Amino acid sequence: MYDPVSKRSKMLNANWIIRGKVDKGVFSDLKFSPAFRSLMKIRGLKTAEDIMHFVAPSLGDLRDPVLMKGMHRACERISRALIGGEKIGIFTDYDVDGVCSAALIYRFLLKLGYPAPIVFIPDRAMDGYGLNKRGIDELHARGVSLLITADCGINALKEVDHAKSLGMDVIITDHHEPDMNLPDAYSIINPKQGDCPFSDQDLCGAGVIFHLIVALRSFLRDKGVENLPNLREDLDLVAMATIADVVSLTGINRILVKEGLKVLNEGNRAGISALADVSGIRSTVIARDIGFILGPRINAAGRISNAYTSFELLTTDDPQKAREIAMQLHVLNRQRQVEEQKVFKEVLTIVEENGNAGEAIVVAGTNWHRGVIGIVASRISERFSKPSIIISIADGIGQGSGRSVEGIDLYKAVFKVSHLLNSFGGHTMAVGINIDAEKILSFSEALNSVLAAEKTKHKPDVIVDMEISSQDLTPGLLDELEMMGPFGIGNPEPIFMIPRMRIVNIQKSGNNGFNMVLKQNNRIFNAVFHSKGLAREDIPRVANIAFTPYKKRLNGYNYLYLNVKAVSPA
Q1: Contacts from 128-137 at CB under 8 Å and sequence distance 24+?
Q2: CB 288: neighbour CB atoms within 10 A?
Q3: What are the respective helix, strand and coil percentages of the chain, to the nearest 5?
Q4: Buried-state track 95-123, b at ≥16 Cβ within 10 A, e below 16
């Protein structure tokens, strides 16, 4: 039985790991603060050159995309189609990554001066995820002879065979995990093929497509094609997809997102500018805005209505039309929020009544809106710090969506129990499953057994980068921390700890939060704490505080605030 009192006690007595302290001598040749230099060492950077590449990544550091397996053959085939006047079809997914992927190659071919490719986006309710016969038949009926998948297709053996039987060549571009047997496609571009030189990079679908169009641009240039488009202009789409698809923000992705956010904030894409405006974003768009504001609105069309709406938003150059579409997406997102909140409350009730002692949370319900179960899984995973799979059952079949937490490969775990599933797919942080309703309990038990067996040690509840003093919190450190962004999987926001801070004031804020005033060494700090279950009387007046510092803009001025992650008795 769920016990809120014991839960609060556990939260206050959580297992903390503190990875280091400030070392004033480390990387002393760099003109950064001692706290920042120490943080860089704790994050695994070994040389001053590594640090400079990290804080100021360059597009010049990207790898040659031709090295990606299947790339040259794909470029040769696409070039032949363009020269020969063939009709090209794009089959993509209905989420942010899929829509951005399609928009990337669509806009590139238009800028080259060729006819627009024919884009097919499946209907979530009618088709489900992935390459399907209906879409292939529709593209064939419209004269497509070269089919390019975006963000899907890596395990679509039967579907590719069907396309080939109709006389179509298929180029697969994807980033999801491949099975042992691959489709008999003309070319497959997926870094997760084990023998691909890019296999160490966790690219999203749009990241793969971007590498394709970079390589195709070079291929066409070598063929004598002139006036080729500037691909930097579309890096905003790559950044949006990379952030929204929750892939690692390290390596190549860090470069693409950092530069893509610059492009996005130049305001040259009518659709994104309009969406930011109707969403109430009045300042520089940051990664968090994409993850929590823009991304959900673009996703809303595919979840509640039709993803072509979002595709049109990202490809139009008409500001008035862009604003009309942005308003449609804003309204759809409100409808999505209502559905999401309804399902979330039901899932949370089930979890709290049944407990969540296992390594993963698997919850099923009847006729939950399938367009929101992925978001609910994400919220449940964040709330309970463990992988979650939410399953909607209709007519005896469960359609599930899962989200993981950093450090746990959910796809790998699901693969080991996939004999209980009708089908599944995904990547490290997100999976989709199809399962007979009567097998859900067995699946849940088997998945928890797999995760328990792979758990080598107890994962700490709070991982703190560094213990610091109140004197280390300076405006200069905040400026330095901004250079670490964008934050996400693989590059989380830094968490610091100051011991024995006095809580001089604490006020309730909303349902699960507090506004706090903290003091140490005659310095006063304003803080916010989303406690997720702690009551005001549970919080000690003198405590060790784990937090992330950030700038809060009020009345035109920046103020230092602390986003408290955890407290423990001092």
Answers
A1: 128/399, 128/434, 129/93, 129/425, 129/432, 130/93, 130/155, 130/156, 130/159, 130/425, 131/91, 131/156, 131/159, 131/160, 132/159, 133/159, 133/162, 135/91, 136/91, 136/162, 136/163, 136/166, 136/168, 137/166
A2: 14
A3: 45, 20, 35
A4: bbbbbbbbbbbbbbbebbeeeebbbbbbb
φ/ψ of 556, rounded to 5, equals 85, 0
CATH architecture of 355-454: Roll (3.10)
Helix ranges (H only) for 172-264 are 205-222, 235-244, 251-264
Residue with tokens 């937090």: 547
Q: What is the pLDDT of residue 383?
A: 86
> Would you say the C-alpha torsion 311, 149, 112, 69 has a positive or negative sign?
positive
What is the strand order of the sheet 169-173 is part of?
118-120, 87-92, 144-150, 169-173, 187-189
The first and second tokens of residue 101, run together, are 């992927």
CATH among 3.40.50.970, 1.10.10.10, 3.40.50.1970, 2.40.50.460 for 4-43+465-569: 2.40.50.460
pLDDT (tens digit per residue) in 44-90: 999 999 999 999 999 999 999 999 999 999 999 999 999 999 999 99
User: CA–CA separation, 253 vs 247, rounded Å?
Assistant: 8
pLDDT band for 201, please (50, 70, 90 cuts).
Answer: very high
pLDDT band per the 50, 70, 90 thresholds, residue 532: low
pLDDT at position 122 over 80: yes
Residues contacting 145, CB < 8 A, separation 6+: 81, 86, 87, 167, 168, 169
Tokens encoding 244: 């929204």
**Per-domain residue ranges for the chain?**
4-43+465-569, 64-232, 355-454
Which is nearest to 141 in space by CA: 105, 87, 101, 187? 87
Model pLDDT for residues 415-460, shown as the tens digit of each residue:
999 999 999 988 889 999 999 999 999 999 999 999 998 875 445 6
Domain 64-232 and domain 355-454 have a common topology: no
Architecture of the domain delimited by 64-232:
Alpha-Beta Complex (3.90)
Going 121 to 127 to 133 to 137, the CA torsion angle's sign is negative
Q: Give yes or no for a cis peptide into 486 (omega within 30° of 0).
A: yes
pLDDT in tens, 139-155: 999 999 999 999 999 99
Identify the residue whose tokens are 């700490």.
460
Q: What is the mean pLDDT of residues 535-549?
A: 91
The yes-or-no verdict on residue 10 having pLDDT over 60 is no
What's the token pair of residue 268? Answer: 């040259």
Residues 566/495, Cβ–Cβ less than 8 Å: no
